[in-house]
Amino acid sequence: MAIQIGEHISLPDFPLLLAPMEDVSDPPFRYVCKKYGADLMYSEFISSEGLIRDAIKSKQKLDFFEYERPFGIQIFGGDEEAMSLSARIIDATNPDLVDINFGCPVKKVVCKGAGAAVLKDVPAMVRLTRAVIRSTRLPVTVKTRLGWDDDSKNIEEVAERLQDEGIGALTIHGRTRAQLYKGEADWSLIARVKNNPRIHIPIFGNGDVDSPEKASAYKNRYGVDGIMIGRAAIGYPWIFREIKHYLESGEHMEAPSIEERIDVIRQHLHRSIEWKGPVLGILEMRRHYSNYLKGIPHIKEVRNQLVQKGTLEEIENVLESFRLKAEGLRPVLVDG
Length: 336
Prior knowledge:
- The chain is α/β, with parallel strands linked by helices.
- It has 2 domains: 247 residues, Aldolase class I (TIM Barrel, Alpha-Beta Barrel); 68 residues, Non-ribosomal Peptide Synthetase Peptidyl Carrier Protein, Chain A, CATH 1.10.1200.
- It has 14 helices and 11 strands.
- The strands form 2 sheets. Strands 3, 4, 5, 6, 7, 8, 9, 10 and 11 form a 9-stranded parallel beta sheet that branches. Strands 1-2 form a two-stranded antiparallel ribbon.
- The relative contact order is 0.11.
């Protein structure tokens, strides 16, 4: 049965969402994730204040391609007027939905009364959400956490009140702000939200899903409508197709070959250069090589060469040389 967000967004049964990640979820990265099965993707999170000030970096984050649809643009902020104006700007760019970030735990965001800080003030969260909903014709969704800390896990109240305001879906990261990304995500509270008879919007779970087995176990144990995947997709976009295959068949797909990994590095690299230019595109691609090549024996030398090269031709030569030498090598599964 399809999962519906608003009137016009129809996702497959148990969709897999790509999390919005700052300095990661740009168009080149989203391209490879979409290719391998991400059903719904988002922009990097965008400051509402930066957007209305016409900050160049914020405006660039609004851009997306038609093949990325359905696509959401995520904003954060602690000021109702700024959030409202941002929603109107986003409306004009015509994505499929607007997502509000009430979960970012980073200090520079929280200090501005935005992101996860709003979990300490549910009425303010409601007002901010209402301001966005009233300023856009698009469906509005929310991503948040269980609460501020262990003593204030208020996600059940948050879910009901935001649904009453008219949000179309809710994604819940199974940690508090105080946990940051440490410890295990607690999906039991996510399940309580999903199983609340008052809740009728889609509930997506997020946190610690890094394998097909976990995705299947969490689906069956907690009953969520879909899963959002973040860090596990960095350098491994194949996780989306592997989860889908496992859910359908109960069997594992063969891990991507070295040739396929090199091919995806090339695609990501070319998209990065097209999007950011030859200097920044190559520079920002360096953070991805270790993740793409993780688990391959004796890879340190190749990785070091890749991060030292400054032109596309030089990087292509390193990749081709590695491909020719790689016959017989196969990735080794590495925990984490």
